[in-house]
């Protein structure tokens, strides 16, 4: 039996788009691959670097602060954005959180009212909202007809609206989600997932991590791969604890406002 | 004579604090502070203006409490009587409360110098009441993002605050923090005093992940570091060449770490050099010692007195406290953000021998409701067999356990017990006689740990401090 090929993860702007512990998503992907004997290379791609769509099985794009996001926006929309779309169209997996999610949409409007083009992977538009949504969130998904929940922490003032070319990632049970109005959270296009959930997202929602890994492996090997199950007791307990806490609070745990 | 209004406010404030203490509702320090600003909004201004030596105001993400306590200790060594706010009561209410409790019935301060630890977001408001002789700014790290948003938010409100300072103030800043040193551009009035570490052997050539100062505060170009100390503190320079870390006025020129026992520090100051055996371990405490030294120099304290103060100082509430318990030692250190937690771990790992950890993570408002920051802490330093047992406790114990698992701590060395008292027992049993249990709680978890320790008779209430 030949060794499985190394999985190639591209981490977009690890230096600039890395608030709210989003790097936990990378740690979850790497560990969960390694625990199954799959070796992983993580390549950071930042301002001035080239993104080769043929060298990316899984792309991660985290959230950033306004100042950094402005710098990243200039660098990303254009060549790197097109390379990202090409990789996803070719079967790569992608996860984008918060700022990364917004930059992958058609347009986003800055807090001072400037409408800027995004990379256009997701058919979404983001605009500044009247208030900041901060708190634990619970989202119900039914990808492949199986009902599951996602837990995370949202902290955003941007409101995202979905177009026809994209599905929501799930339905908001607790929290604001995309825009605080239509109860949707996140967006899915092919193997690409975007949403507002920090936490970090993947460690407490290991099924989504495995789904991304499976998509990435299929792209890498050309064949469907069944991932062996792992001992997820700690992860499942953490998921359950947050879910219970959020449901028991009857919604939001009281949080700061600014 | 004071105005009758101030006198009435002073009486009411002190009465409320005494009542609160008698009812066992905690220190009562904040209750007085709520009453007085309404009854006598000028009390903080009027009382601090009368202080013969003036006031020092201290702010920053990490190190406020330790640095303020350190300054108070040095000032006492110098024969002064500082009035300072206590135990993290660092909003306006806490400041009012401190000066009111210090005032005589005639509205005069009993102390001769004011010393105030101020919350980052409260700083602009505090400076509307207090015209400080020294404003000491320590650092800006990512902290509770759910409350304050981004580090640039804090930097922004501080810019406006330093722009209003006049010539009567000395602005003492950390030269190694580009976000803090960048504020100097906006300070037209005050005298400037910078402090930093100039010992190359105390740093490393690479920055850690999750650092918040990648861009130049002046022009937005990429920043480069010739040396990194911790977080984004280091010898920075803008790659476009318009912003460089200065040579600090007050410097530690040599750090000789003595492990658990702290470090031997060599200082260079405009008023001469000195050495001091400083008992608080960790490089972040070296910065606290530097900051306190800069502030005390600006208040006119002699270097020799500062050195003596540094040598005789012991830890602040919950900051590296050591408590003997069941023939073991409990080492208690507050953790509240990624940089602080990472540095506490680094300090613990310098100790030889087995390590039992008690990590107590809450997500109440005072802790920060978002615990995502745990993923920015370098728990990878605990991987493999570096810990004997890690007991995870508090409201978010499960999150903590997952973080450790993904850091590479074997799951058989991780225990989850939400109840703090039960968790403490598990940790103490896992440690052998003579060993240390390292308890690292977030803020409200610290209060819970203290409650358990008090119920079991190991410590007294912290407001007796």
Outline of this structure?
The complex is a heterodimer of chains A (258) and B (465). With 258 residues, chain A is α/β, with parallel strands linked by helices.
List keywords for this structure.
heterodimer, A: 258 residues, alpha/beta, Rossmann fold, six-stranded mixed sheet, 6 helices, 12 strands, globular, disordered C terminus, B: 465 residues, UDP-N-acetylmuramoyl-L-alanine:D-glutamate ligase, Protein-Tyrosine Phosphatase, Chain A, nine-stranded mixed sheet, 17 strands, 35% helix
Explain what this protein looks like in three dimensions.
The complex is a heterodimer of chains A (258) and B (465). Residues 253-258 of chain A have low confidence and may be disordered. The radius of gyration of chain A is 17 Å and the shape is globular. Chain A has helices at 23-34, 66-89, 99-103, 201-204, 206-221, 233-248; strands spanning 7-12, 40-45, 58-61, 93-97, 107-109, 115-117, 124-141, 148-162, 170-174, 184-185, 187-189, 192-195. Chain A has 258 residues and is of the alpha/beta class. Chain A has a single domain (7-248), classed as Rossmann fold (3-Layer(aba) Sandwich), CATH 3.40.50. Chain A has a 6-stranded mixed sheet, with helices on both faces. In chain A, strands 5, 6, 7, 8, 9 and 10 form a 6-stranded mixed sheet that branches. Chain A has 6 helices and 12 strands. By secondary structure, chain B is α/β, with parallel strands linked by helices. Chain B has 2 domains: 4-171 and 257-264 and 271-311, UDP-N-acetylmuramoyl-L-alanine:D-glutamate ligase (3-Layer(aba) Sandwich), CATH 3.40.1190.10; 319-464, Mur ligase, C-terminal domain (Protein-Tyrosine Phosphatase, Chain A, Alpha-Beta Complex), CATH 3.90.190.20. In chain B, the strands form 3 sheets. A 9-stranded mixed sheet of chain B has the order 2-3-1-4-5-6-9-10-11. Chain B has a 6-stranded mixed sheet with strand order 12-13-17-14-15-16, sandwiched between helices. The longest helix of chain B is centred in the first third of the chain and has 19 residues, at 4-22. The two termini of chain B are 32 Å apart. Classes of the chains: A alpha/beta (258), B alpha/beta (465). The interface between A and B is large, with 44 and 43 residues.
